[in-house]
């Protein structure tokens, strides 16, 4: 299973077919998925359109409702885990999209975010169609190893990650927003950084390591963790 190749063609899907999906494939994959922080418990449910509340102009036949213990860095863990699933579904011609503007009708304090999914004829794009910050904008050194992180999706394409090179690899940071942006994007930033880390993991499975260290923030950025690939 080559999930890394899906990074270069994946697009957030908002046009779906009503075709049924064999959900056993999803459950089987999720039984083998790698967490970023194993100590944080998480779960998911597969729901229909009628079981969620949306603030989007489009809808999908299925939604993944994602839940987690609300421990420190749970957003990183959720983004890391479920972007692996998104890439896997992409390999099965199942489109998906992270849905920040949505919730479950059956309220649960552990609910985090939705992911829409379904069969689609509109789930691939050429790499030239990606609109992303340049590598020099997301790192202190322009580094092709970070290309897969550059292509990661994020809330309103905000791309809040930044990588600083170290002797061992990279220190990872997230953007420190002003008060206005923090209210809109703040709760999704950790998920977004987790998504970028997921891309780095599936592209470097044999060497990927992530740890939390005692590091200082950078001007305009908050330290998130340290990475070796």
Detail the topology: elements first, then pairings:
Layout: H1 23-30, E1 42-48, E2 52-54, E3 62-68, H2 74-91, E4 94-99, E5 102-104, E6 111-119, H3 135-138, H4 147-150, E7 161-165, E8 170-175, H5 179-203, E9 209-211, E10 221-228
Antiparallel strand pairs: 1-3, 2-5, 3-6, 4-6, 7-8, 8-10, 9-10
Helix pairs in contact: 2-5
List keywords for this structure.
alpha+beta; NADH Oxidase; 4-stranded antiparallel beta sheet; 26% helix
Notes on the structure:
The chain is an alpha+beta fold. The chain folds into two domains: 4-119, NADH Oxidase (3-Layer(aba) Sandwich), CATH 3.40.109.10; 131-228, putative nitroreductase (tm1586), domain 2 (NADH Oxidase). It is built from five helices and ten strands, in the order αβββαβββααββαββ. The protein has helices at 23-30, 74-91, 135-138, 147-150, 179-203, and strands at 42-48, 52-54, 62-68, 94-99, 102-104, 111-119, 161-165, 170-175, 209-211, 221-228. The strands form three sheets. Strands 1-3-6-4 form a four-stranded antiparallel sheet, covered by helices on one side. A four-stranded antiparallel sheet has the order 7-8-10-9, with helices on one face. Strand 7 and strand 8 (170-175) form a beta hairpin. Helix 2 packs across helix 5 (179-203). It is globular and about 50 Å long. The relative contact order is 0.18. The model has no long low-confidence stretch (mean pLDDT 95).
